[in-house]
Amino acid sequence: MTKPVQARSFDAIAADYDAHRPSYPPALFDAVEELAGVPLAGARVADVGAGTGLGTARLHERGARVTAVEPGDGMAEQFRRSLPDVSLVRGDGNNLPLRTGSMDLITYAQAWHWTDPARSIPEARRVLRPGGALALWWNDGDPSVEWLVDQENRMR
User: Fold this and answer.
1) Domain range holding 12?
2) 51 vs 151: CA distance, rounded Å
3) Residues 104 and 132: beta-carbon distance below 8 Å
4) Tens digit of pLDDT for each residue in 25-75?
5) How far lies 4's CA from each of 54, 68, 71, 72, 94, in Å?
């Protein structure tokens, strides 16, 4: 399977994904603002690989002017049900359907691994305004929670 095919494998279960996938803590967005040097309120943000909009919703709540970028049909349909007032364009990080220099921040909430960095890095640089930033994040297990550690050990 290629990365684009794998990335769209969630389409068939988009509603379940939306209902059960954990969101992100407020501290994450505080860190994004601090490390990127970009206040979210009023910032032009592209949330690439937005899926059903879990990260997009948190950015939007912080006052960002978000444009979600999503390749999958099922995920985009669920996104539109969850966030009808947020802009959504179809595409992926390897070929962003966005104007050159149009974004203050580009985010990938658990989606960077679906890209080809040889293509997605130049695309991010093209779309970011001078001084803009790229933020990538993933959910990780909390090693202080015993049952999560046990689960990780079983999976290994």
Assistant:
1) 3-155
2) 26
3) yes
4) 999 999 999 999 999 999 999 999 999 999 999 999 999 999 999 999 999
5) 20, 17, 9, 9, 10
pLDDT surpassing 60 at residue 20: no
Residues 6+ apart with CB under 8 A from 148: 141, 142
Tell me the CATH number at 112.
3.40.50.150
Structural domains counted in the chain: 1
What is the pTM for the complete model shown?
0.82
Integer Cα distance of 79 and 30 in angstroms? 24
Residue 4 in tokens: 């684009």
Tokens linked to 6: 């794998």
5-19 b/e with 16+ CB inside 10 Å = b? eebbebbeebeebbe
Q: Which helix (H) or strand (E) holds 56?
A: helix 54-61
Residue 66 pairs in a beta bridge with 45
Measured between its terminal Cα atoms, the distance across the chain in Å is 23
Q: Is the pLDDT of residue 1 over 50?
A: no
The set of residues, in sequence order, having a beta carbon less than 8 Å from that of 120 and lying 6+ positions away, is: 93, 94, 112
